[in-house]
Each structure stands twice: as structure tokens, then as C-alpha cells.
Amino acid sequence: MRQHTATSIAESVRSGEASATDTVARALTRAREIDERDRLNAFLYRADEQALEFAARVDADSAARDTAPLLGVPFAVKDNLNVIGLPTTCGSRILEGYVSPYTATVVDRLRGAGAVLIGKTNLDEFAMGSSTENSAFGPSRNPIDPTVVPGGSSGGSAVAVAAGVVPIALGSETGGSVRQPAAFCGIVGVKPTYGRVSRFGLVAFGSSLDQVGVFGTNVTDAALALRVIAGRDDRDPTSADLPVADYPAAKPSAKGAGNPLLKGVVMGRPKEYFPAELDARTAELCDRALERCRSLGAEVRDVSLPHTSLAIPVYYIVAPAEASSNLARFDGVRYGRRVKAEGEGLRGMYEATRSEGFGPEVTRRIMLGTYVLSAGYYDAYYRKAMQVRTLIADDFRKVFSGGVHVLFTPTTPTPAFPFGSRSDPYEMYLSDIFTCTANLAGIPALSLPIGRTRGLPVGGQLMAAHFDEERMFAVASALEESLGPDAHR
Amino acid sequence: MSVDDVRHVAMLARLGLTDQRARELTQDLNTILEHMDVLSRVDTRGVNEASAFGAVAAVPGEEGGERGGMRLREDKGPPIPLAEPPEAFAPEMRAGFFIVPRLSTHEDALDESSDEESE
Fold this sequence. Notes:
Chain A is α/β, with parallel strands linked by helices. Chain A is built from 15 helices and eleven strands.
């Protein structure tokens, strides 16, 4: 199932060895195969016509040939990113019939770099979930083992990359929705610093947490895609006006030739992410990865992030609170579906539209969010959660200001689980336990494959200080090279 | 949370619930909220609520200001040009206005109107 990388595809299109049109046509065929034949349900919409038209333009544009870093590279995006002329469903019935009148900045930037969008991928409804089981259009399946979930919420994008349809894809993260499916599907997933990437055109879920993230078959491809989409966008005031480094070329700060690759890099191993009940093989694979880093010259320190166990309660107050506000706009008036309630006026229409349009998990979170923001409960829940969030962010600040450059942890406590095995909502929420801390603190984080347990991929997570994606990629790239084929066995 | 609390919150959130769904949600939400109780035991005296998550937290403003790496756009002009007008994607429009059903609180006052919808 492994395929060409984004870098090698762009190179062969540049040299004339392959055309963008042929490359994109092959990706579209493969997309059809995995959904129609293999029933992986990765795509909610295949943009065959638009993709082939765009590919023909790439082939005809000789000026782009020398400069476009992703020349002719097919990509897919999670279906909560808007693209002119294509439907946006967010995996929900409530947006039925909606065709987007504008394009997300991240999609414009990838296209500007010569990449070709081939379709929109499945997700948990409004990105709420950790398995894609909450999609109104049925779950996606894991290409490594179709009896287990691909993770979520950006499951469709992870499947599209892992099944060899596209070398890069976009997802979005609120609490781990890129890193967790990347870990489950054995690929690389990156959540950038809050503010690193424009969110213009991303349907909002939790505004203080959301970031667009990237998937890649390897670290270099993910780094390249992030370099292309990162940076200030005047259409998103929360995007940071800071320089973007050349992530694919990132090197650790080893001084002088001949030094080991990670010489001078200090890695932290936070004990709270290695509890006694952690899957034994996952723990063993993390130890192996850290050992490789040590052998490359890194210093590994035991550190503590003492408020980690509070992250899930904090996250599941803050994110639903923000969601209850953001999803108020889906009211049957401005876009998507309207359900008329006979003789009950405006409120009846709102209630009928929203109760029929939203699925059970979205309803649950809107309820939870509305409750924790309501008079009499705000202080006990929301205010308290935002104070504890400060403590969680301070844990990271202390570790990084104490000289640690990157943290290493497992991405998830378990590998991919079977469909239907987490019917208790809170049990499902615990899937995000190692990932949602980075969203709460706003720091960048990345998951890369570090081996397998019972045949299923295990992800290792690297986290860095705000806007230090460069060092995170440098360490990831060194570890990936050192693990080689061991990353997939 | 009682079933009545759940109904009240559903009203605030403009969600219609069947009796069965209200009962299910009462159970779900109580179970989830039990897990949140751990927060009440955390000492947060003197701790500010989180308010800065990325650039603002990490990067001081150019003149010591608080915006850091983030910059607000100028407050002017139409924000975003759309490829299609709202008519292309709104459920119901007329003459550039979104059509909505009458507010139920106003229905009694409107005896002369045979038009079911107002603008």
C-alpha cells in the first residue's frame, strides 16, 4: 500500500517523467477502488471533474514548473474545509444541500503550490469524535485492518493517505483529531501551534483549540505541506505574523560536522504519559524510540506535567462550551437544511431543524456546552476549567523553559479499537487523553509511526514549545530515519 | 441534572427532544459531569482563566503590546467576496432577505395576515 511521496511525485512531474493529469487520474481511480471495492468509506465527495481540470492547468503552466513545490501532487481535505463549488457536509445531515461559495486559505495555498485537490474526506460529525463512527454517512475503515476504526475525527483523510490514494491530506484538530487517526493508521500527523495556520474556511468547532493539521506518509511530506499552508493570513486575525522555517530541511542544532544527529537536543519523557496500565507493547516501543534518540546523541530527561490527568475533564468542558456557541449558526435559516414544524413558528423551526439535523454526539456536546455556560453553573464548570487550563499550559511552559526542547510520549493509550467497542461516551473521550493537552496549551505536536502491536500501528508523539515546529520536525525526521522499516513492525 | 434541567437546557440550545431522548441525555450528561467533579477539588485560588493560547502567549507585542504575533484586520469593507450569493445556499430567500417563520409570540397579534411568513 505504500506509494510515492509528495516530494518524489513533484519531482517526476517537474522532470516531465509523469504528467499531473495522469498522476491525478491514478489517484482518483485509487480513491474509487478503496471506497467502492474495499468499502473503506474514506471520501464523502470525489471531485473528479474539478481535479482533472486543475491538473490540466498544472500541466499547461510552464512558469509553475520550476517553482511549485507540490507540482501535480494529489491531496484530499477533511470535509469541514470549504472549497468553492464543492459541498461541505461536516459529516452532518444539517448541511445537506450546502455548496460552498468560498475556499479555505489552506486549500488555496496548496493549490498555489501546484497540488491538486481530489476530494473531501469523511469525519465524525462536526469533528466530534475519535473514530469516525459519528459520521452521518457511516464510519471509515482502517486500511491496516478494516475491522478496527481508523481513528478520528479526521479519519477519512488518514485513510486516504494510509491506503495510498494521496501522499498528503489535511485534517483539523481540536483535541487530537489529526494525531490520533495518524497513529491508528500508521502515518505521520501534525498539529501546528495555535495561530500557525490560517483557519479561514474551516468550519469552527472549538475556537480556542482548533487548528488545521496535515497528514503525510512520512515526516518530510508532512513538513513540506505544513510549510506551504503556514503563515499569516489577513482573513484570520488569529493567524500569527511570524516567519515560517523550511520545515522539510529542519536539522537539530548539532554543532559542527561529525556530531551525532541529535547532539545538544534535550528530550523530556513526562511520567504522566506512561501510566502503569499503558499497553505494554506501546510502552516498549516508546522505550525503543527514546533509545534510538539517545543513540543519536539526544539527552533524555524524566519530567513531570502534574496536571495531565485533569486535561480530559477540562477539554470536555471547554470544547463543548465553544461548540455550543459555534454551532448555534446551524439554525435552518442561512444555509443547509430546514425542517418546518407545522404551526410552531420560528422556535419550532429551529428546534425541528436542529434535532433532526444533528446526530447524537453533537447533540450531547451542545447540551453539555450549553449547561456549563448557563447561569448558576458557569463558575463551577467553565470558569474552573479555564483556570485549570492555565495550570496545564503552565506545566508545559515550566518544562520547556527548564531546558527541554521536545517531549516524547505515546500518541494514544491503545492502538485502534474495534467498531462499536466504546459505546460509553466518556470512555471514548479518554482516547484523547495524551493529545488534548497540546490543544489546551496551544503548542505544536506530531505523531509518527514507531512500530506495531498485535499487527496494529502505534504512534509516538513529539511536542514542542509554541512555534518551535522546526525542532519538532528535526527530531521526528531523525527518529524516522533511525527506525527505518522498524516503524512499521 | 434532572430531566427538567435537561429540557430547560435543550430549550436554551434550541434542540427539540423526545421524552426518551431527554431521559437518555439526562443519564449521559450526569455520567459525564461526575467525571468533571474532580476539577472542584483543584486549588485555583489566584489562577487566571486561560486567555491566550498560541501567538499571544508566546510572542511579546512589537511595542510591548499584548497582541503579540496576531494582528487584527482593519475594521472596514465587506469581509469576504462570495462566489455565489446567499440565494444559492440559503433554504429560503426573497428579495435579498432570509425568510423565516413568524415568531410564535407574535402570531396572536397578527389577525389580518394570511401570509404565513414574514421577512
